[in-house]
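Hi, here's the filled form for the chain we discussed.

Project: internal
Contact: R.S.
Residues: 635
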Amino acid sequence: MLSATTLDVSHLPDYAYDWALVDVETSGLIARRDRILSVAVLTFGPDGVQTDEFSTLLNPGCDPGPVHVHGLTPERLSGAPSFEDVAGRIGALLQDRVMVAHNAQFDYDFLAHEFARARLRLPVARRLCTLALNRRVEPPVASLGLASLAAHYGVPQVNAHDALDDARVLAGIFRSSLAEAARLDVPLPLVLCPPRQDPQFAPKAPKTPCAYRNPGRPVPGEPLVQGMKVAFTGETATSRAELVARAVAAGLNVMSSVSRHTGVLVTDDAASGSAKARRAIAEGVTVVDERTFLELLADVRPGTPHENRTPGRKPDSPATDAPAPEVTAPEVTAPEDTAPAEAPAGRPAPSPVAVAEVPAPRRPESAPSVKPFGRRRVLVLGGTHEEAASARTRVVELGGTAAINLSASVTDVVLMPGGERDRRMTRITALRLPVHAREWLTDPTAEQAAGAAPAPARQGATTEVLPRGGVVDLPGDTGRWHVSASWAQRTDCEVDVVAFVLDEEQQVSCDGDFVFYSAPESPDGATRLLCDGPTEQSIAVDLAVLPPAVHRIAIAAAVDGAATFGDIGAVQMTLAPGFDAPAAAQSTLDAATSERTLLLAEIYRRGPRWRFRAVGQGYDHGLEELVRGYGVDVE
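And the returned structure, exactly as it came back:
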């Protein structure tokens, strides 16, 4: 916990809050299914003084899960209270305070579900994630796990995975992180938390994956084929549940929406004017009534099975909250694989500045040449959007990485016209960071020849830096990946990160495969949206449990309102094998001035392997058109 030398930020309005630091140990990783086994809450005032402390074991009434991780056996938990017994005490500690946790969405989601089971409201209006805060601060550490940060900040850890000890370690880490944020003038990544007692908070039951490839639309007069996509609309004599069950049993792929890839729409009123009926007519989809469909189900021809080539652990492998395994940087692939997938219907084709024109990096056979910026992380200030984007591209060409925020890892600043008026310049001057004119990017060796000190080592020096269109192979033994996007903070607009889980035809299998703020998890739970702050969102993908029909996960960002990515500026992408693992790859992407939607990245199958591509393709239209192009039914 905080020592006698507490951090007093009560005089800094942007950092002065009442805090409630939380840690939970759980029976698994899925909040809607698993339970909290132990919880600890520590409260602090804006002056850094601890005001209260509470911790307890909990009897979950179920199997405690990975005992080898948390050490909480059924015998230890048998006499503990239930969550309902202590919910009032926990709620009183959280009330009117900012909830703080490491990977805060995890703890928040578990608390939200436990409060909902107790028929109570979780009294948290804002939360702060120390993991997200340290991603903004960027301390020189190997990873952002609790143990690594504790070692870096000099916080002793006695009993890892004990909720109270972890909460005390969290307090020490938070104290130091908050001091670094104040030193760097880094805005706190506070997340607004909507009420979560709504039963819709829990995702729907998983859709039964279809085991067969889509053979296309039926031929008139011939039988249906397994794998054909079928949708239903309107009232039917047979219950919808029975129709769906019989269609699935026959090997058909039941969809919740209609797209150009739908084979059959079943309705007894094709002129009903429903959204599905209108789309079916517009796309030329075969429309049959219920009686005809039931007759067709009697003779469905065999289809072509999907090949489940997903590497990694088996889908039924037990999940734990153990630290992510260490992996080497993904292997950089040859440049012939850089062309993006064909734009889906309803989406405009890529602009003339297409991803295919940008060659992917390739690891040379001989020893790589040393580039001037091999260890530099450069922040570009000022200039027009095009000038700043060009400067960031040049930084990457020189072997460095382009920063979008001031952090502890920034080694240099390039000042473009108008950059001297940036509010961060005061702090940059105080930190004595080297400031260069834009001409430095033309000849970076000139200052070195004049005796300038070399750049210090920075965090992520072994991280693969990808240009726009760059591709890396993902190691076959790692199933979980986090793709994070971050941008400079703005107050006049918001950016939403979304994901589409796509089949071989670049279409969603159901509307639930569109993952966004209001539906943050795909039906199978393999793809999730994580909101870590107002300037950072992540897509977590578990490749090992994706259905075999999934061939691609497309990740995009859209600007809410009239602003464009020319106003937002660069978006930084990172790829990591875990929420707190070191980044395996990163890329800084700039859209054009007028673009409102940006296709950030793709994780996709290539033969037996999965690959990651930093795309950076922008579109002038809004998110709705992109959503329709991927086959999502938008009312």
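Let me know if anything looks off before we file it.
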